[in-house]
Specification:
Helix 1 (about 15-25) links the parallel strand 1 (about 5) and strand 2. The N and C termini lie far apart (about 45 Å). This protein has about 230 residues and is an alpha+beta fold. It has a domain at about 85-205: Glutathione S-transferase Yfyf (Class Pi), Chain A, domain 2. It has 10 helices and 4 strands; from the N terminus they run E-H-E-H-H-E-E-H-H-H-H-H-H-H. The longest helix has 28 residues, at about 125-150. Helix 4 (about 70-80) runs antiparallel to helix 5. It has a 4-stranded mixed sheet.
Length: about 230
């Protein structure tokens, strides 16, 4: 089955967590808006009666349309050996992905603390305050949690010896924070050696390495979730 992924064509954003899973799975998928344009994505959203997705990303798998990043990954994980087989394990991994989803929103709010409809330039002073609190309180809380899970997993990945989609999402978090806050992240990474090693381990997996080196991987930019503003990285 060829999957159809619907997400904005010029940013990694929340769709990147899905792309990483699809790439690792070796799945046949079409990144619709990148190949057919945003109107094709909007037509798909507007044409869904009964259970329309609220916003991208959403995935079309045959006749099924699944929205929300964590929900999509929950679906893909069970079908492509990217989640435990047992129900309890699948729910645990899903719970971790939802925690990552919470953190991703906090990353976004460092540069848009008042609201997404305003330009960054309209909320720069608030962004500086939010970013400081983010690094003082939120980053240690979230990344420290995942560091402890890795330390106690008994393997190279969060759940042990087998890769799950959560490991790839954590790779993306580290990669994104390195782009957005290179100075702050360089200092903080001394506290998370396990996550640093996990990042490198995921990046070295053959299918992920090929994806990262390809044109399919959209570069980070200042329109996505992870944005580099020099005045925030001090």
């Amino acid at each position: 089955m060829r999957y159809e992924l619907y997400y904005w064509p010029s940013i990694q954003g929340r769709g990147e967590y899905v792309r990483l899973a699809l790439e690792e799975a070796g799945a046949d998928y079409l990144d619709v808006a990148r190949l057919r344009g945003v109107p094709a994505m909007m037509r798909m959203m507007e044409g869904q009666s009964g259970t329309p997705p609220f916003a991208p990303p959403f995935l079309k798998a045959g006749k099924v349309v699944i929205g929300q990043t964590a929900n999509i990954l929950f679906y893909l994980g069970a079908r492509h050996a990217l989640a435990p087989k047992a129900e309890a394990g699948r729910l645990w991994v899903h719970q971790l992905q939802l925690t990552i989803t919470d953190f991703v929103l906090e990353v976004h709010d460092t540069h848009h603390p008042i609201g997404p409809s305003l330009y960054y330039e309209d909320q720069k002073s608030e962004a500086k305050k939010r970013t400081q609190e983010f690094w003082d309180e939120r980053v240690p809380k979230y990344l420290g949690y995942f560091e402890r899970l890795l330390d106690g997993s008994g393997g190279h990945y969060v759940t042990g010896r087998r890769l799950t989609y959560v490991d790839m999402s954590l790779f993306q978090l580290v990669e994104g924070l390195r782009y957005a806050f290179p100075k702050r992240m360089k200092t903080f990474e001394r506290k998370i050696p396990g996550l640093r090693e996990l990042h490198d381990r995921v990046a070295a997996r053959p299918k992920i390495a090929a994806y990262l080196a390809s044109e399919r991987r959209i570069p980070f930019n200042e329109d996505g979730i992870f944005r580099h503003y020099k005045e925030l990285d001090v």
